[in-house]
Amino acid sequence: MLGERTIGTSLQGKVALVTGAGKRLGRAVALRLAAEGARIAVHYRASAAEAQEVVDAIKGAGGEAVAIAAEMTSVEEIRRLVQIATHELGRLDILVNSAANFLPSSMISTTEEVWDAALDTNLKSPFFCAQAAAPWLKRSKGVIINFADTGGIIGWPGYMAHSIAKAGVIMLTRVLAKSLAPEVRVNAIAPGTISMPGDPPEWEAEFVKVAPLKRTGTPEDICDAVVFLARSEFTTGQVLVVDGGRTLG
Fold it and tell me: What angle, rounded to 10 degrees, do the helices at 24-35 and 48-60 form?
């Protein structure tokens, strides 16, 4: 009967690895997935104290979590990250590739170092995370959620390498979705300007001027999208743009 069917899949007891989970959106996503019942591998690179705060918050609420350090530009460390996460938590159902950097670079100012840093963190690492996690996700019929960016759709001349890397994440999502189907679903989120503490106020002001909804997003908006994609069993290869309409032009 209508009303008896549960929409989507429960996250209770599932295991999620969230990269870059010590700060900003990764932190919010880790806490939200834990609130939905998932057990969380909290990845961090240098934010050990912040990652431990996330673990403590999850455990304090009755959940299960472990913090794991890894340098995401190293394939060896990425493989070790997945190995530790699955050893500690026993399985893997959800991979959220949210670790990122955001480096300014124009056509003139982009150096080889900036280019490599942007591409390695934003594009290389999600691919190799997916590669390492794939055997576990196939076993659990799991899901990968990549973080793209509206910069990867409309292109930001002042953040050229970043925009190119995030455009690559969009294609990575589509190719992985084909490669890992039917066992694993792969989708991406492209956030617009999300209000976070410490961000320059001019970012918000400019965004509000050009976005049809006339507001910035919140971490909760992104977490809602992550939960939707984690639970939506008939969605793969898609990029969910959460930007208040900014990319409409």
Answer: 20
Domains of the chain (ranges plus CATH)?
A: 15-242 (3.40.50.720)
pLDDT score, position 8: 54
DSSP 118-133: HHIIIIIHHHHHHHHH
Q: Closest Cα to residue 129, out of 186, 204, 208, 209?
A: 186
Cα separation, 22 vs 54, in Å, equals 7
Which two tokens mark 115?
């280019």
Distance CA 240, CA 153 (A): 12
Between CA 233 and CA 10 the distance in angstroms is: 11
Structure pTM?
0.94
For the stretch 189-217, pLDDT in tens is 999 988 887 778 887 888 888 889 999 89
Name the stretches of the chain with pLDDT < 50: 1-7
Q: Would residue 62 be called left, alpha or beta, if left means φ above 0 and alpha means ψ between -120 and 50 degrees?
A: left
Tell me the Ramachandran region of residue 198: left when phi exceeds 0, alpha when psi lies from -120 to 50, beta otherwise: left
